[in-house]
Design a protein that fits this description.
The chain contains six helices and eight strands, in the order αββαββααββαββα. Strands 1, 2, 3, 4, 5, 6, 7 and 8 form an eight-stranded antiparallel beta sheet that branches.
Length: about 200
């Protein structure tokens, strides 16, 4: 089976897990920034890989993408995509520094900070999945790409197999004071792992 075969009840379960994960991520980021962070209710959808670039704006807009492999009882990949403005705001809030110019002024230090932020957010989502399913999920060391939105999902970054043509996309917004920050969490489970996930959630 693939992601396109998910029915409304299965998507609702994914949305519930995403909501829990987003809440955990907001709590962790609140501790990092010493600020109160609110979250929007996540939107969950299944989209084609070639359409990922459109969810952040224009496909040729520069974005920052934090990518990890998922290991353990479920295998696959995750991608956390930050539009340029969101990447800049998050990094400056965590580091306490001035907002860097994106992408040209986004240094290796800024990228390292964003990888740490991405690691926290992805960890929160995967922990929610792990608790819900009772399975072991392990994240790899994060990698980061600064590129056009339409390019970050190509095989040059993620080494997709030909059978991977859709992703589970969680769109959510964080509200920090008067600032609104957008992020897009993408989960790409391997075909067999999707079946395992649904079975453990008692949805098949």
């Amino acid at each position: 089976m693939d992601l396109r075969s998910l029915d409304s009840s299965q998507l609702d379960a994914m949305r519930e897990i995403a909501n829990i994960g987003a809440g955990h991520a907001a709590t962790a980021l609140s501790q990092m920034t010493d600020r109160v962070i609110m979250i929007d209710v996540p939107e969950v959808s299944i989209i084609r890989i070639e359409d990922v670039g459109t969810i952040t704006g224009e496909p040729d807009d520069a974005v920052a993408a934090v990518m990890m492999k998922v290991l353990g009882d479920v295998t696959g990949r995750t991608v956390q995509i930050f539009p340029g403005a969101s990447a800049v705001k998050l990094v400056s809030m965590v580091s306490g520094g001035v907002e860097p110019e994106f992408p040209d002024g986004f240094t290796s230090e800024h990228q390292s900070t964003l990888k740490e932020i991405g690691n926290i957010i992805v960890g929160a989502y995967l922990n929610a999945l792990s608790d819900f399913m009772g399975l072991l999920l392990i994240m790899s060391v994060p990698a980061i790409a600064i590129d056009m939105a339409g390019a970050v999902m190509t095989t040059s970054y993620l080494n997709f197999g030909e059978e991977q043509d859709h992703v589970l996309c969680v769109n959510t917004g964080m509200i920090i004071g008067e600032e609104r920050i957008r992020g897009h969490f993408l989960l790409i489970p391997d075909a067999t792992s999707l079946q395992v996930m649904l079975r453990e959630m008692k949805l098949v």
